[in-house]
Design goal:
The protein has 10 helices and 3 strands; from the N terminus they run ααααααααβββαα. The chain is mainly alpha-helical and about 270 residues long. A 3-stranded antiparallel beta sheet has the order 1-2-3.
Length: about 270
Amino acid sequence: MTILSAFMFLGLGIFGGFMAGLLGVGGGMILVPFITMILTWQKVVPPELAVHAAVATSMSMIMFTSLSSMRAHHKQGAVRWQVALKLVPGIILGGFLAGGFLFSVINMAWLALIFACFVGYSGYSMLRNKKPKPSRDLPGWPGMLAAGTGIGTISGLVGAGGGFLSVPFMVWSNVPVRNAVATSAALGFPIAVANSVGYISSGIKEVGIQGGMLGYIYWPGLLLLISMSMLFAPIGAKYAHTLPVDKLKRIFALLLFSISAYMFYKALLAFGYL
């Protein structure tokens, strides 16, 4: 790793940690496009592994960032623990499914396209600001298990902490947006642990341990990301409780649209259309 790459990872750690606390997205989804750019530009990993390594590395960072962000939100009394506990079993199941199997069999082009589509839809859902029916509530245990499995699986494929799905899901079910963001921060940890175990086990079979890679995880970059993200996640969480709700939703949506556009561009490149 070059000195320039190291400073880039440190900067991403600051940005990702702050946004994780602010928006409850774990920071990973925001970082995947930028980590992909660094790994490709600096030729840190083989080109065909760049997106896989970016997804796995950003997800592993969430194990640490989510704890810092969750602690800050918990101090504000904003985490809905009863909601989180109902989603966790499905999240762990989906995480093992994605990280341990699906991730290793999907090529870079399809991975980037899946990422772009889900992130773009999540941004649209937040921006349209459609009010849920007042009578709508969170589903029972079967529904929460299914929702958790979907969140865990998709998050594992795109390297996200699940906030881009869990926040709209909870808001749709009449959970206030501040509580949805805080609860999403708590969900980031089980999502990251389940998927990281899968990335390591499936990655060792495919790429082994070489050139800074632990399975699909690029660990030198991971250490740099963690060093900054854990410091700045509580700062972002503090701002999440002071910004107006509508402004928080707009920031979330516009950020998702930007990320979706870049990853759609990467997908088109990988498919050979550009």
